[in-house]
Design goal:
six-stranded parallel β-sheet; 19 helices; 47% helix; binds zinc ion
């Protein structure tokens, strides 16, 4: 259990980011996993009372975006604005609680990227050299031999790219091999999970090569990207510019107070395909610029859809907004996080979503709340009674609740989100089991059992109250609906610390509410 921050003072700040996406098409369910996972961790840190800052956004300065605009016959500004709206709609429908939305076409971001370029130049880490490859004029992109399909552009099967050389700026990555190696060795939590760390160490052992950090603006092609300072013939290569967004989001280079307060980032959450950029290029750029390194890069696996790789060409992408319209944000979040393993890939299936929804959200959790509220209304007129003398079963339930708080928190802090959720679900099931063991419906008919029944009703309600806090990172809207039926206000910052222990909050009166998760039919919904 490293990094346990559950009892840290409320003044601790926590800055986390997700990767910024290429807006070359609307977001699909594959994009959603990372955002939902980061959101759960952001919400958890707010529940600990940390001053949490969560940044997400779009990587707009890419040739992929230029190509997409062209294919859709709209100009670049119209296209990027349209995509910006689509992405923000998807994330708000999934209840993603980001604090900063960054677009790399922002003017401040141009200044940030240019400042990073200048600092690398001043350090003597930028030099010019020749960059070569198979150039497709329609893509305005270089390909390496492997990427061509029978000598043709992978995106334009009728075009044969030509071998082209251009003079570019390069960044001296190789110079930083030893320092990167030392940093990764001295900070075992810098790259998680361990399997990704091992991968990165392997890349360093093979020898790091300098990488190109600019592209020549070609005649007849509109310049798109951040101009190289002092050389408008070049734009900064999209990765050098994109990585800098994590600095821009906290005020770099203009707002030093904000920047110094939030930087270094506590975690960059990324997919496994971009590990090299975040774990090698990025720390080297920061070392060159004299800026502290982020504390952690948390790498997740990919999801497949019904066992198939998600791709535009396979036409199998699912619109997260449509999914939320049908199942609700909480159900989609729950299913993604339950199946999420940072170490490996997971599969998204409609049947799996319906099954987890019915078995866990509707049966386990929905029924628990419904039982608790209904019994308190029936036996105590809606007033939540004070507990009588607790017995062994109550002591055990309390212990499970306290263990859940610690172990689920620790699992979240080590990015083991699926495990954190499954630990929490243990308390849902234990509370249901407790009610079955105590049989309050029998106690209600037995004279002299009034105090015992009070204890059972109180304990079931109190465990449910704690569950609403422990589940808030994953299913925030359900969490507040549970609280409302227990007569409580929406979950507040620092609740994990201030109200996360047994008996730390007074319960008074249950309130009416609708079914938390009405059952879904198993067939294809509309
Ligand atoms: Zn092409």
């Amino acid at each position: 259990m490293t990094n346990t921050t559950q009892d840290d003072p409320a003044s601790t700040r926590y800055y986390l980011t997700t990767a910024i996406d290429y807006p070359n098409g609307p977001p699909h369910i594959g994009h959603s996993l990372e955002k939902v996972a980061a959101d759960a961790v952001a919400r958890y840190h707010r529940l600990l009372g940390h001053d949490t800052y969560f940044s997400m956004g779009l990587d707009e300065n890419s040739q992929h975006v230029v190509k997409a605009a062209k294919e859709n016959n709209v100009n670049l500004v119209t296209w990027t604005n349209r995509m910006d709206e689509a992405f923000r709609l998807a994330w708000s429908s999934l209840d993603i609680s980001y604090d900063r939305w960054i677009r790399t076409t922002e003017e401040q971001h141009f200044r940030a990227s240019q400042e990073m370029f200048r600092r690398a130049q001043q350090r003597g880490d930028i030099y010019t050299s020749y960059y070569s490859g198979w150039y497709c004029p329609n893509c305005n992109t270089f390909y390496i031999g492997d990427e061509l399909i029978g000598g043709k552009c992978p995106n334009h099967l009728s075009l044969s790219p030509e071998w082209l050389e251009e003079e570019n700026y390069f960044f001296a990555l190789s110079k930083y091999s030893d320092r990167l190696l030392a940093h990764i060795n001295e900070h075992p939590d810098f790259i998680v999970p361990a399997v990704r760390r091992a991968e990165v160490l392997g890349i360093i052992r093979q020898g790091l090569r300098d990488f190109s950090v600019s592209r020549l603006v070609r005649p007849g092609v509109p310049a798109w990207g951040v101009p190289v300072p002092g050389d408008e013939q070049h734009v900064i290569y999209v990765w050098f510019d994109a990585l800098t967004n994590y600095l821009t989001a906290v005020g770099f280079p203009d707002d030093t107070a904000t920047f110094v307060y939030y930087w270094p980032a506590d975690a960059h959450v990324i997919g496994k395909d971009i590990t090299r950029f975040h774990c090698l290029y990025w720390p080297a750029m920061l070392l060159s610029a004299g800026i502290p390194l982020p504390k952690q890069v948390a790498v997740h696996g990919f999801i497949t859809l019904e066992g198939q790789k998600i791709s535009k060409s396979a036409g199998n992408s699912i619109d997260p907004v449509e999914l939320v319209d049908e199942f609700g944000a909480d159900a989609v979040r729950y299913y993604l996080l339950r199946n999420l393993s940072f170490a490996s890939d997971g599969d998204f299936s409609r049947a799996g979503l319906v099954q987890h929804y019915n078995d866990e959200l509707a049966n386990d959790l929905g029924n628990l709340l419904n039982r608790v509220v209904t019994m308190i209304k029936r036996y105590r007129g809606g007033a939540i009674p004070a507990s009588g003398q607790p017995g062994e079963l109550e002591a055990d339930l309390q212990r499970v609740a306290e263990d859940t708080r610690w172990h689920a928190g620790a699992a979240l802090e080590s990015w083991d989100i699926g495990t954190a959720l499954s630990i929490t679900w243990g308390l849902v099931r234990r509370t249901n089991q407790y009610i079955e063991q105590c049989e309050p419906w029998k106690l209600a008919r037995q004279p002299g059992q009034e105090n015992h029944l009070n204890t059972v009703l109180y304990s079931a309600a109190e465990a449910t109250r704690l569950l609403a806090i422990f589940l808030a990172p994953y299913i925030p809207s359900a969490s507040n609906r549970i609280r409302s039926q227990l007569g409580l206000k929406a979950v507040s910052n620092a609740a994990w610390v201030r109200e996360g222990t047994w008996g730390s909050c007074e319960l008074k009166q249950v309130a009416d509410g609708s079914l938390l998760f009405p059952r879904k039919e198993n067939g294809k919904g509309g």
